Amino acid sequence: MKHIFGRKAGQSGFSLVELMIVVGIIGVLATLALPRFKQFQAKAKMAEAGNILSHIYTLEQSYQLDNNIYILMGTAGANVSSPAAGNNCTMASITNAAALGFTIDPCATNGPTPRFAYQIVAPTTGTFTASAQTGAGVNNRVCTGNPAFTIGLDQANTGLASATATTTPPVGVNQIGVVCAL
């Protein structure tokens, strides 16, 4: 009696055709899963930025209670213009980072983390804006090849979204949505 896949009586195992069908199915599943995996990865990286911004918010509130003013902080973390030049991990060299009590851990000068550059801009006695910015194109550590974007929050712990390049939609703490366009 002749079998469909060419097996003779008493033989066991898989035929080449059966193995190729399984490889094809795995390839299709991997093709469908990879873009979704990149989106989940990007969302996790965005959540990391949100957590650090929340920490900055807490530090700013504490500083303001002690000194009646919010404090400026220079750029700390990722070198978004040229990662090859190294991250800015020496908190003592960052304007007011020590006074605020801000640190990033782990922060490797020549490593992949942190993924964002954090800073506090234009503080006054009643307001401040903290931001986390990515690089653009190949320097974007959240979604390589995508435009730069900034997320942030203010003294009211309100998420802010702004795009330094065209991103649709702009990505922010309160609207993570689609992060990677490519």
Task: Summarize, please.
This protein is of the alpha+beta class.
Number of domain units = 1
Radius of gyration in whole Å, from Cα? Answer: 24 Å
What level of helicity do the residues show? 25-40%
By DSSP, the count of extended strands is: 5
Determine and state the CATH class. Answer: Alpha Beta
What's the story with the biggest beta sheet? 5 strands, antiparallel
The outline comes out as: elongated
Average of pLDDT: 79
SSE pattern = HEHEEEE
Weakly predicted, low-confidence segments: 163-177
Q: How is the topology of this model organized?
A:
Blueprint (H helix, E strand, L loop, with lengths): L15 H52 L5 E5 L19 H4 L16 E5 L7 E5 L16 E5 L4 E4 L20
Antiparallel strand pairs: 1-2, 2-3, 3-4, 4-5
Write a structural description.
- The protein is an alpha+beta fold and 182 residues long.
- It has a single domain (17-162), classed as Glycoprotein, Type 4 Pilin.
- It has helices at 16-67, 97-100, and strands spanning 73-77, 117-121, 129-133, 150-154, 159-162.
- The protein has a 5-stranded antiparallel sheet with strand order 1-2-3-4-5, with helices on one face.
- Strand 2 (117-121) and strand 3 form a beta hairpin.
Descriptive key words:
182 residues; alpha+beta; Glycoprotein, Type 4 Pilin; five-stranded antiparallel β-sheet; 2 helices; 31% helix; elongated
